[in-house]
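Kindly inspect this today.
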Amino acid sequence: MLEEYLKKTEPEYYPPVENLLDLIYEHYTENNPVEKNTVAGKVAKEKEKELEEWMRGLDGMDRLVDDYVGDKIPLWEKIMDQQGTVCCAWEKTAFEEGMKVGIRLMMEAMT
């Protein structure tokens, strides 16, 4: 009965969710923040700190540029924001690809 319902009913997702893997990722990241005090988290925070310190030391990085809401922020901070956005996109891609591998593994194990 449930299987028939799922076949007949199209899911209604909301932005930025476009499919079931997006939905799983959104819920996973909501309930498992990266701020956890893990070894990997500590290493990532240290690397981010090193990058920020290095960029702050480059000529011209104190120049003010527009942020997302029209305020002025230092160029190094704008670059850090962009870098964070790129990292998040790669994290989501890796998560979704890992889920696909896990699903395939489960399907193979069941046959």
Observations:
- Strands lie at 64-66, 72-74.
- The chain has a mean pLDDT of 89.
- The first helix runs from residue 2 to 8.
- The longest strand covers residues 64-66.
